[in-house]
Write a structure and sequence with these properties.
It contains 2 helices and no strands. By secondary structure, the protein is an all-alpha fold. Helix 1 (2-64) runs antiparallel to helix 2 (67-104). It is rod-shaped and about 95 Å long. The two termini are 44 Å apart. The chain crosses the membrane at residues 12-31. InterPro entries: YjbJ_sf.
Length: 105
């Protein structure tokens, strides 16, 4: 009877350890996903800021007949679009790599 009780305790402890390990691993994966999402949002914010600043400079250049400011604004808009395109490509490649990793396991 005592051996049965010890085995039951061991199985319970092992089960608890396994459950806790799975919960910790799941939490780590969720936190990593949230962190990755934060990076994506930061990238989008940065490219959007360049596009808006560029558009404002274009308008200011047109309003003041300042060709330099207008061209600078167009360049900033293009820079923002390029950042956005780069980030989209980077995200797509990252997604493909993750799919390949998942399928290889």
């Amino acid at each position: 009877m005592e051996d049965m009780f010890k085995k039951l305790i061991k199985v319970t402890v092992i089960g608890s350890l396994i459950t806790t390990s799975v919960m910790i691993a799941g939490t780590i994966l969720v936190v990593k996903k949230i962190d990755d999402s934060g990076d994506k949002i930061e990238d989008k914010k940065d490219s959007f800021k360049d596009r808006i600043t560029g558009a404002a400079n274009v308008l200011m250049g047109k309003a003041t007949n300042d060709m330099f400011k207008e061209n600078k604004g167009k360049l900033q808009e293009t820079k923002g679009k390029a950042k956005e395109t780069f980030n989209d490509v980077k995200d797509n490649i990252s997604d493909k790599v993750n799919d390949i990793k998942k399928n290889s396991n």
